[in-house]
Each structure stands twice: as C-alpha cells, then as structure tokens.
Amino acid sequence: MKLITGNEKEFSNFVDGLDKEDRVAIISHNDLDGIASALLMNDILKEKEIEPKLIDFIDYKKGMFEPVHEKLKKEKINKSFLLDINESSDIEGFNKLKKEIGIFLIDHHPSDTKGKNIIKTKTEDCVTFVLYQLGKEKFDFGKWKELVCATMVSEFSYNSEENFNFIKQIYPQVNLEDMYNSAPGKTAKLISSALIYFSSRKKKVFDMINNDDLSELERYSSIVEMEFESLKEKYKKEAEYFPSRKLYFYHYTPKFSISSAVITALSVKEKDKTFIIVSDLRKRKGFVQVSSRNQSGNEDLNLLMRKATVGFESATVGGHVKAAGGNFMKKD
Prior knowledge:
Elements: E1 3-5, H1 8-16, E2 24-29, H2 32-47, E3 54-58, H3 65-74, E4 79-83, H4 91-100, E5 102-107, E6 118-121, H5 127-135, H6 145-154, H7 161-170, H8 183-197, H9 202-210, H10 214-238, E7 240-242, E8 247-251, H11 259-267, E9 274-280, E10 287-293, H12 301-308, E11 316-319, E12 323-329
Parallel strand pairs: 2-3, 2-4, 4-5, 5-6, 8-9
Antiparallel strand pairs: 1-6, 7-8, 9-10, 10-12, 11-12
Helix pairs in contact: 2-5, 2-9, 6-7, 6-8, 8-10, 10-11
C-alpha cells in the first residue's frame, strides 16, 4: 500500500491525541467501503475508550458538507474522521469544515487536495484496506478480515497484485476471473444489497454488521437481489449500443437504487466496453443519477463524466478511471 498524501505517523498522532473530553464523529460514504471503514474506525476509538457522539453516512452531492457541518455543530463535535469521501466534490465546504473542526480525512478518490491530517491513496487501495493497514499493529482487527476482503472485491482493489495476494492469504481459493462468485464476493453482494434496501437508513446496516446479525442482512438483501436480476436482463435487452465507442447506454429507474451495482456486474464480463445507466432521482425531483463502468481502464470515466456535464447547473460528478458517476438536472 502506497500513500500518495499523508503518512501513518500523522494518523497515529491524531488518534493518540484524542481524549475522553473530545466529542468525536465518524462521517463516511454511504457505500460498502464507507460502512466497513466506519466499523474499523469505531473499533479503533473503542480501544481508546472513546464513544463517537455521531456516526453518519453521506452521499456525494453539491454542497454535501453543509448538512454535515450543521450536525457537527449541533452535537458540539470538535474532532471528526472523514472516510471514503471525495472532498473535491465540495471543496469549499470541506475547507470551511477544516477551519472549525479538527478533521482527519482518509480517501482513495483522485484529487489534488493536500495538507495536514489528509491521507490519500491510489484508487485500488480502498479506505477499509488502508485503515486495516494503518491500525493492524496497534488494534485487533481479526474479526474484520473477511469484511476487509469483501470491501476490496466491491472496490476492485484486487486489480493490484499486492492487494490480490492479501485476499488470497485469507481466501486461498480465489481467482481473478471469478471474484464476484468467490466467498468475499458473495459477502460484498450481501451487504451492498442490504445497503440498497435501507437506502435512507445506512446506519441500520452498520449496526447489523457490528452486531454480527448476518441472517437479518440476508432477509433484506434477497428482496433487492430479485430486482437486481430483473434489471440485468432488461439492460442486456434494451440498452442502446454505440459500436464506435463500445458503449452501452440505458435510461431506466428501478424500484431500488441498484443501477451502479447492475452495470458493475455486467462490466466485469465485458471489460473492454463502457456501461452507462441513467435513472431518475426520486428524492430530488428534476434530477437524474448517472453511473458508468469500464473495467479495462481504457476510458477515463472520471474525465468523461466531468467533460459530459461541463456547464450543467447544479451537477455533481466524479469518481475513478474505471468507475464514475454523479447527478445533474433532468433538463440537461
């Protein structure tokens, strides 16, 4: 694991500098990497006998730090960890937050942000894996090894040889050709489906995993899985295909927010092609959400999303080379 910005000592100093008088928050992304990294961070704080006053999960959108700022103020938070959050989506809000609260950011999305208490890694080093590596010498993460591997599968961290070897140490039977049907792949699918079911209550999934209640997770994920398989078939039959760009495009709004999961599953089978899906946002009338995947890396989807939405009012887009997305107004 290579850190692009920041270092292990900064992280240790920040954690060691916390005391019981501090009011600490964990703010994380609302996907599997965000949930899993929050679970590891919560355990680190427990070892320090510190109970977080707030654990919250957010999505990327314009002005995303404004409601976070209000919550932190309300809870009188003075120290906060930001995990798996691409701060460049709202850099002004991030800088404002940093001025008023002691922030430590750990993230793996491409950005130019640098400074004290910021750790940035390569795309394939998901935040859960980074936290595991940063804390494994001082904290007991034994019970989270399977969760770390599941998260690495969901984030395509196995594309790095070093990371693949880490997964293989825990699951000797895994192979690169069939990661999604491997044991960690199935765990990733289980948790991701539960997160989709509880789209507005991600903390419930955090609590279920923390309490080791996987049977409850299975109950909800099976409902989402049925919709998932249905959309996969619809996409294959109905998506427009542009041969010159090797690009599939589909506009469809499913019952659950499964669009990105569906094109992820499809893209691993045709790695040289680009898969795009646009769906209406129920919670933001007049807005759509776009997700894109290309597993070969031959198309920079982060750049594509940004170029495609230049000049769009209230657009928020970004991500990685192989996976990117965002939202913009339907009129555009």
